[in-house]
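OP here, attaching both records as promised.
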Amino acid sequence: MAAHPHHDLPRDASAGARPRPALAQPAGLLVLRGLAGALLLPHGLGKLLGWFGGPGLAGFAQELQGFGLLHTAPMPLLLALVQTGAGACVALGLWTRRAALLGAAFLAVTVLLNLHGGWFWMHGGIEYPLLWTGALLAVALLGPGAWSLDAWRRARHCHEIGYGLFD
């Protein structure tokens, strides 16, 4: 008996679901990872360099002070570098799991600092940073996907000593 052409395609977890194309998962991970990183990156660059209407390091230091957090050098620089680096790495799929966890931790602190503002972000609440915390946690759990620099490095350098040290 000849195999049905769709029998070798992945199926969704729900019973009776139609087969889905093999490209759906890597494409979905690329979209999730790309957006999560690309939306984190400019916020870090705004703090670091004042780009995109951001406060720059001096303004970011004032924001930290306003929250009662450590605001003296090098803390604003380190935090801006964390947010910028995590965003870039997640978007590119480079050291993805660690970068996504770092970005999620950064945003989780933002959630905690904005609890007093309620739910809606337009009123200073936690909705927006909580959404992106969840997206970054999903990336950390799911991994970078096949269309990432991590996958390329793994395929190209898996034989090298120490590979995987920063995955």
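Record two, same layout:
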Amino acid sequence: MRLPLQVRLVSGESTGSFLGRLAALLAQELLDMMGVGTKAMDPQFTEVYLNGAALERLAVMVGLAPEVLQRALPNLRPHRLLDPGPGPAWKWRSGKAKAST
């Protein structure tokens, strides 16, 4: 499902910040639409990491290719994705630690 409203990508922005801006614009539970994960945290102090399935879902929702999102949002690049699981998932982490499940 493509989202009815979009926000512009900001090069180098954290994934958490991008999703936070989307959620604020849409006033709905954006992460619930993307899969299973942990409680949202303040993107100023944390980052959200996605697995490949959640990245694919986000790409559809915002109408951009996964590669476009990966160029603009560094923590969506392949070496930062969570391990694949049974479905779309995300995990919030404090600081800039490498993502892992």
